[in-house]
Write a structure and sequence with these properties.
By secondary structure, this protein is mainly beta. The chain has helices at residues 30-35, 95-100, and strands at 2-14, 17-19, 25-29, 43-48, 54-62, 69-72, 84-94, 104-107. The relative contact order is 0.38.
Length: 115
């Protein structure tokens, strides 16, 4: 059996910008993507702690060291600058992998620095 499992998470990050006129996706600082074991173009869920909005999109690389988490395209109508978010990435694992998987969880402060 294959199971969809959490493999990486950015926890309590802050939205730095919402760009409605940009092709839909989520722009995240490449350093944060790497720290959480995520990959470019990987499907992610973005969960807004402040208003309960939940979307699925994909990751694109932001500038390293920028600490940006930018919501782009139509989803920008559901989020606001400063909203606290959780970004979850999932992977498909076989039964053995699923039972031993330890997701990479990156805790962030209000400025998107790793805690």
């Amino acid at each position: 059996m294959l199971r969809e499992m959490l493999i990486g998470k950015l926890h309590r990050g802050s939205v730095t910008e919402c760009r409605i006129d940009y092709e839909g996706s989520l722009t995240v600082d490449q350093d944060l993507i790497d720290a959480a074991g995520m990959l470019l173009h990987q499907k992610v869920q973005v969960l807004d702690i402040d208003n309960g909005a939940r979307i699925e999109t994909y990751l694109i690389a932001g500038e390293r060291g920028s600490r940006h988490i930018m919501v782009n395209g139509a989803a920008a109508r559901l989020f606001h600058k400063g909203d606290r978010v959780i970004v979850c990435a999932y992977g498909i694992c076989d039964e053995t992998e699923a039972r031993t998987l330890v997701p990479k969880v990156v805790l962030l402060d209000a400025a998107n620095n790793q805690i």
